[in-house]
Each structure stands twice: as C-alpha cells, then as structure tokens.
Design brief:
heterodimer; A: 213 residues; alpha+beta; 6-stranded antiparallel β-sheet; 3 helices; 28% helix; elongated; B: 506 residues; mainly alpha; 69% helix
C-alpha cells in the first residue's frame, strides 16, 4: 500500500512539474517596448533615506507591463512606481525590498494605450543601503526631482511589455546561445545540460522508488 | 520485477552483499550505503549541469577565485594583493565575455552572436601571459587549500584556454558537491538512527537537489569545499555522539576542522560548536575510560592544530592573523560597542526587539535577506524570480515547518535525551551565522554579506530538517510526504536553472 502511495505521489509530482514547466514556457517573456533614450552615462545622485523621485516628460507605450529602472543598490528598498498624466494616475506597481544590482524591474498594471507626456514617480521606502540613480546629464531638459530637489539630469527608464511569442519559439536561439562563451562550443553544451538534468530527474525518481516505501 | 523490488533483491542477495559486508567489517571499515552514493552522484550531476548553465565568471567572485588558482598554479606563490589587475589571459577572456556589462545588470545577457564568439576564440588563442601581478581580488585573503586542489584541473584542462581551465575547475567543485551530499546522508543516518530509513534518503536527496548547492558547486568557489568539509564535520560529530568518541574518530573530526580552516575563513564559525561537541564527547568517554577520552581528545586537538600551525609558520599570508581579521572585524567597525554589534547581528537575521537600535528599519530581514535569498538569488545576486514566487514559496515552507514541529513534538522524549548533542549543532549553526553577521557589521554596507551561500556549511542541518519533516507526517504518510518534499526540491532546482537560462541566454 505504501509503495503504491509513493508511486502515485511520485507520478503526480512529476506530472505537476511537467505541467508547470510547459505552462511557464508557454508564456511570453517581457520585451523592450521603448526606452526614454537616456544613456547609462553616469551616477546622478545617491540617497540613503526614504524619498520620492519624479521624472516628467516620459511616454508610456501601449501595453507597458513593467518599468526597468536604472537604480543601483546592494540592498534595495521597496519601490512604488506611479505614473501620472497631469494629476490622473495612469498606472502603478511595486517591487519588494531586498533587490540587488541595477536594472530593477517593477511590474505595473498594464497600460491599454500609449500615454504621454507622463510623470513617473518612484517612492523609495525604508532605505537601508545607499541607492544610486543612473542616467545622464540633461541640462535644460525636462527635470528630474529627488526629494523635491531638481537635478539637471535624466534617469534611464525602459518600458517593457509582454512579448508576442512564447518561450518555446525562442528555444532554438537559447539552445544555440548556451553554446557561446563556454569551453565547449555549439549545441553540445545545451544537449549536455539537458542530458545531465534528465539524469538527475531519473536518478532521483529511481532513488525515491527504491527507498521511500 | 519492479525497480524497488530489484533494489531490495540486490540488497538481500545472500551471496552478494553479505560476504562483502563481512569482509568490510573484518577490515574495520563502515558499510557505505548505496543510497548515500546515489545522493552523491545526483548532487555531482546537478552541479555539473549548473556548471554548464552558469556563464563563466557569472557566479559571485569567480573571477577572483580563478585568479587565485592561476597565480598559485603559474607562480607557485600565494596572491599578494586584493586588487583586480589579473593576468592578461583572464582579462581578455572577461572582456570577450562582456563580463563588466553583464554582472549586476539582469537586462544584459551573455554573448550571443557568431561574431562575438569568434572574437572571444581569437582572443583566447593569443599567447598572452597567464601571470598577473599577484592580484586575486576578494579571494586574496582566503586560505589556500581549495585553490591548491584546483591547480590540478587547471593543469589537466585540455586546450589550455582560460575557459577550458575554468570548466575543468568547475567539475572539481561539482565533485566536492557530490561528496557533500554523501556526508549529509551519513549525518542524517547517524543523527536520526531510529525510525524509518527512508527519511535518510529524504535528507540526502534534499541536500543533493538544493539549487544553491548546485550553483556554488558548479562554480569555482571555495564555498564548494568548505560546505563539503562542514558536512563531514557534522557527520563525524554525529557518529561520535552515537557510537562514542574514539581516537580514530577524534582524529577524523580534528582533520575536518584543520581542512576547514585551511579552506575558508567562514569555517571558523563552526569551531565553537565543534569544540563544545568535543568537550561533551570527551566527558562522556571519560565515564567509561579516562585514557580513551584523553587519547581521543588529544588526537582531535593535535590533528586540528598541526596543519594550522605549519601553515602559519610557512606562509606569510596564512593562519592566525587572518583568523583574527575575521573574528576581530568588529573592533575595526568604527569603534561601536559590542552591544551594538550583537544587536546588529540579531537584526541581520531576526526581527528587531524592543529597545534595540534599528539597523534595518522597515526590512523584515528574516524574510527579505534570507528566506527570499534561499528561494532564489542567482548569478551575481542579480537574478531573481518574479515577486509572486517568493510569496508562494511561503506555503510549502510553512508546511515543512509544520511537519517539523510535529516530528519534534512526537520525538520530544528522544530530543530531551540528546539535548547536549542538539546544543552542539545549534552552536555550530549560531557560530556560522555570527561570523557572517560580524563580517557584514564590519563591512559598513548593511546587507552586503547577505548571501545565502554563506549558510551552506549548515547543509547537513538542512538535510536533517527535511528528514525530520518527512517523519512528521507519520509512518503511514511519511514516505508520501518525503516524496513530495524531494519533488519540491527537484522542481525548485529545475525552475532555478530555467531562471538562470532566461537571464543569461534570452
């Protein structure tokens, strides 16, 4: 009886994992819809306190579902993004704290139509570790304000939207690219990785069947 | 015949395993469980898979660890500086891989065109010097054992380019990961001797499939050896607690300690707990034979201290000064008080208590720094799942915690009888956490040392936790719960690998 239960649990579990993999790979990865054209030229300013950053003169492309922000921190704070067209809230979203590095993606409610000009405001809450804003000088251009203080700079913002194709359609490219930049070149890398992953799956299943009864 | 029945048949063959067992017993060697070997193989294969999927140098500090090995292999000397002016051969490989534009930038992927690959190959073939100026970045201060071992695959690598050598070195790390899973299985077997045996497999497999183990053991990083030696130390102590301390076992524990601190300074965190363990074991052994107890402790302490002393004498870069550097980091941290330091370390892991100065205001560090980190933080800590995954992970984590609580409640009598042993493991765990906390406090940038890989020396405890949780479901449902736990880890591993693939190759 216990052996049957284990077999059933294993079969069910593997089926669920398989379905989950298929479901994930059937989704579309986010793709770049547009940037605000600001290069990543320099660090504009730092903050170590809860603050609000606003940048006007932005355009939100249709179907924007996330913003990629040029911020850097070793222990990033919670970020709340709000985009306003005048005083009207166009979209908003949050990224929880604890992020690390640059290119922070904040998912937002999908925007049905292109909106612009909009002001994108970020609220950085409970800042524990220094947060840097990255972008470029833009003297005389539309202003960036940090904690109410205007800066002659612009922060780089990228707008993402769901891609048109699923992960499956990228499979060939991804398998090819795993072959770049490694000791072994070409498809052999991806095939080797797939083989190893399959071996791990098979051996684990065998060991479960052998011991867990 | 079913697979399970075949396995059973194999185990019970009168003419097969039994004589071999008898012969081993006659030679005084313990039986090596086949399940432990299977766990080791699974962990090795998994780490080997990670070693292919992680682009070169896209695991924390791998470029520095590689430089350390290269310096040691090419010059026979230890690194002399923590700057990053590495050998031209490594520099050009990093440039060809666009290293500086990828790390910490999850939007930027690794090279992806035939042209970039051709440039990389052309650069790798240039007859550039493999000798730098002795720089090894953040790795420069680490002890040399892991790096010395890595010089073997460094020289054995066919082709001889930086990427060839790195791939071979990663495989040695993967082998270490396999050995770690092997010791975790043995530890769980010794620590949980009563009850169903399948729980040992849950513990061993749970460790073998941990994606964090795969990522680190699939890279050039001394953590791979440190976690292996730590698992061996846990096993040695558990065996001594179960079977009594002998001079041989004492020497083995001492050897693990010596190898540990010759590998990575973080290992020092386990020493207070291990010392407590040896003291308890010594007292117990003295009850039956004072002579055996003394010999065992002498064997342990002698073995543990000898290489360290030799290392300190022979190498100007090694030994006690570095130990002091880690342990005494607090003293350099702006002269703040010990109370503040303790408060900081507490809050680095746990919610702030009333009256404490707030070091991480608004951040639930247990969740944000550690739970989320263990769920998924790959690459240069720049590769994460979408937010909802971390929230969803609370459900299985809560279920495992509940099952663990059930097991502990059910086994409270046994727990009481083994309180001293449990205290030793807890002290080893607390010591490990404290060393990382002290380093973060001294560093001055809150949270910079919040990398979950620093908890890998406690992999054996993770295995035991999973085994106990499976047991918590009871005899009838335990195997099913164990299967579910292992499959959960397997799924975690698969999706972590897919995450890394999507981050670097799409």
């Amino acid at each position: 009886m216990e052996e049957v239960s284990t077999r059933l649990a294993l079969a069910t579990g593997l089926l669920l994992i398989g379905l989950a993999v298929v479901a994930v790979l059937s989704r579309s990865p986010a793709t770049l819809a547009q940037t605000n054209g600001v290069p990543l030229a320099s660090t504009l300013t730092h903050t170590e306190h809860t603050t609000q950053v606003c940048q006007s003169g932005e355009t939100l492309p249709r179907e924007t579902s996330a913003l990629r922000l040029a911020l850097f921190s070793m222990l990033g704070p919670r970020i709340t993004v709000r985009a306003y067209a005048g005083s009207r809230l166009v979209t908003q979203g949050t990224q929880h704290d604890g992020w690390d590095g640059t290119d922070i993606v904040v998912p937002v409610r999908s925007v049905p139509h292109t909106s612009g000009p909009v002001t994108v405001c970020l609220r950085l809450d409970s800042v524990d570790s220094e947060v840097s804003l990255l972008g470029a000088d833009a003297p005389g251009a539309t202003q960036l304000t940090v904690g109410g203080r205007a800066l002659p700079d612009r922060m780089r913002i990228e707008y993402l939207r769901p891609g048109r194709a699923s992960w499956w359609s990228y499979a060939g490219t991804i398998l090819r690219d795993i072959g770049f930049g490694h000791a072994l070149n070409g498809d052999v890398n991806a095939l080797l990785a797939l083989g190893l992953a399959t071996a791990v799956l098979a051996l684990s299943s065998w060991l479960i069947l052998r011991d867990l009864r | 015949m079913s697979v399970a029945a075949a396995g059973r048949h194999e185990l019970e063959q009168p003419g097969g395993a039994a004589p071999r067992r008898a012969a081993r017993r006659a030679r005084g060697l313990p039986r090596v469980p086949r399940s432990a070997l299977a766990c080791a193989l699974i962990a090795f294969l998994n780490a080997a898979c990670w070693s292919i999927l992680s682009p070169p140098f896209e695991v924390p500090d791998e470029q520095a660890h590689f430089a350390y090995v290269q310096t040691l292999a090419e010059t026979g000397a230890l690194p002399t500086s923590n700057r990053e002016a590495f050998a031209p051969a490594e520099q050009i490989a990093r440039a060809g891989l666009h290293f500086t534009t990828i790390f910490f930038r999850p939007a930027d992927r690794t090279i992806s065109t035939v042209g970039e690959q051709a440039t990389l190959e052309r650069d790798l073939a240039l007859p550039l010097s493999r000798r730098g100026s002795g720089d090894a970045g953040v790795a420069a201060d680490e002890p040399p054992l892991y790096y010395a071992l890595e010089t073997i695959p460094y020289w054995l690598a066919p082709g001889g380019t930086v990427l060839d050598r790195l791939a071979m070195m990663r495989l040695l790390s993967a082998l270490m990961g396999g050995i770690a899973a092997f010791f975790v299985f043995l530890f769980v077997r010794e620590a949980l001797p009563g009850g169903p045996r399948w729980a040992w497999t849950v513990g061993g497999l749970g460790a073998a499939l941990a994606p964090l183990l795969g990522m680190i053991s699939g890279a050039v990083n001394p953590d791979a050896l440190c976690l292996t030696i730590s698992a061996a130390l846990f096993y040695g102590l558990a065996r001594a607690f179960r079977r009594g301390l002998t001079p041989g076992l004492g020497a083995a524990v001492g050897a693990a300690i010596a190898l540990g601190y010759l590998t990575k300074l973080n290992f020092l965190g386990l020493l207070p707990g291990a010392g407590l363990g040896l003291a308890v074991l010594g007292v117990r052994a003295a009850r039956s034979s004072r002579r055996t107890a003394c010999l065992s402790l002498l064997a342990a302490l002698g073995t543990a201290a000898a290489p360290g002393l030799a290392y300190a004498i022979l190498s100007p870069h090694a030994g006690l000064p570095q130990a002091e550097e880690v342990v005494g980091l607090a003293g350099q941290a702006g002269g703040r008080s010990l109370v503040h330091e303790l408060e900081y370390i507490w809050q680095f892991y746990l919610p702030r208590l009333p009256g404490m100065t707030a070091y991480f205001p608004g951040v639930f560090t247990t969740r944000v720094l550690w739970f989320d980190g263990l769920v998924g933080l790959y690459g240069w800590l720049d590769t994460t799942f979408p937010n909802w995954v971390y929230n969803a992970a609370l459900v299985p984590a809560g279920a495992i915690a509940l099952l663990l609580a059930c097991a502990l409640l059910r086994g409270r009598a046994a727990l009481r009888a083994r309180l001293a042993e449990c205290a030793v493991y807890l002290a080893m765990g607390a010591g490990t956490l404290a060393v990382v906390g002290v380093a973060d406090y001294a560093n001055g940038v809150p949270g910079e040392f919040r990398e979950p890989r620093y908890l890998l020396p406690l992999l054996a405890l993770w295995g035991a936790t999973l085994a106990l949780a499976a047991r918590g479901a009871g005899r009838r449902w335990g195997p099913v719960a164990g299967t579910a736990i292992v499959l959960l880890l397997l799924a975690h591993d698969i999706f972590s690998q897919l995450l890394v693939v999507s981050r670097y190759y799409s």
